[in-house]
Structure formats: C-alpha cells, structure tokens
Design goal:
Layout (H helix, E strand, L loop, with lengths): L11 E3 L21 H11 L3 H8 E4 L2 E4 L11 E2 L2 E2 L7 H4 L10 H9 L5 E7 L1 H16 L4
Antiparallel strand pairs: 1-6, 2-3, 4-5
Helix pairs in contact: 1-2
C-alpha cells in the first residue's frame, strides 16, 4: 500500500524574498495560464478592456489562455527588474505559488521549488491546512481555464 502521508504534514516555511526567479520559465512550468477572472483583473489594472488585454497580451494553446511568451526571453512580460509590475492584478497561478499540486511531493518540491526559490525555508510556517486551502484555490482556478 503506497504511503499517502503528505510530506508537508508538519507545515512548510515559505516567504517570498522578491528574487523574481518564479517569474522566469523553468522548463515545463513556462506558461502563465489565465482564467477569465485573471484577464478581467489584468484589464482593469491596465485600464483597458478585457478584449484588448486578451488581444495584446495573450495566446491560446490547446484551448487555454495564457500570457504571451517571448522565445528569446524566459521572463514574464510583466517582470520589472526582480518585481512584478502588475502585482495587485497577478493571476491565480502566481498567487498560489509555490503551493502547486504538481510540486507537492518531497522530490518535486526539492527539485522544482527549493532548488531555485530563496523563499523556501524562510519566514512564515504554512500549516498543512493552509497549504491545502491554497491547493484547493489553485484547483478551483484550473477548472476555469479555457473559458
């Protein structure tokens, strides 16, 4: 029988250090996916229509909207220095980092998060319940992708 105990049952320490490293593509985690709410929030922040935001800043791949990417630059188009230039409007995907279901096992956490994110092991101790809540929010957000 496989061990289903969560590696974060005693919580995980994480506090953003403002390095901007999570705003740069790290292989398979390149796309910044956008829900309809994300696109509206961006548009409101930029004081343009959602349609104009979508036309100027978004692409659609396999039916899912995401921020456009520059193949010559792995950074998010809204990264200014090491800071998010649209922090208050950032999408759900960015709001839930680093607690993504894809990395919530000990091996992936070490390889795909802790290896490059200086916020891991620092600051607030996130309880198992708090992490599960973020994971639930991420899951709900993913269900709204592609709309």
């Amino acid at each position: 029988m496989p061990n289903t105990e969560k590696f974060y049952k005693d919580g995980l320490r994480f506090e953003c250090q403002g390095s901007g490293k999570c705003c740069t593509s790290h292989g398979e985690f390149g796309f910044v996916f956008l829900t309809p709410e994300d696109r509206r929030r961006f548009a409101d922040h930029l004081k343009i229509t959602t349609r104009d935001f979508t036309m100027k800043y978004c692409d659609r791949t396999n039916g899912v909207w995401h921020l456009k990417e520059d193949p010559k630059n792995p950074d998010c188009m809204f990264l200014e220095g090491k800071r998010c230039g649209v922090y208050k409007a950032r999408p759900s995907q960015c709001r839930t980092w680093p607690f993504w279901k894809e990395v919530m096992n000990a091996k992936s956490w070490a390889k795909d998060v802790a290896a490059f994110c200086p916020g891991v092991g620092k600051g607030k101790l996130w309880s198992e319940k708090e992490i599960d809540s973020v994971l639930a929010a991420e899951n709900a957000s993913e269900k709204r992708l592609g709309k």
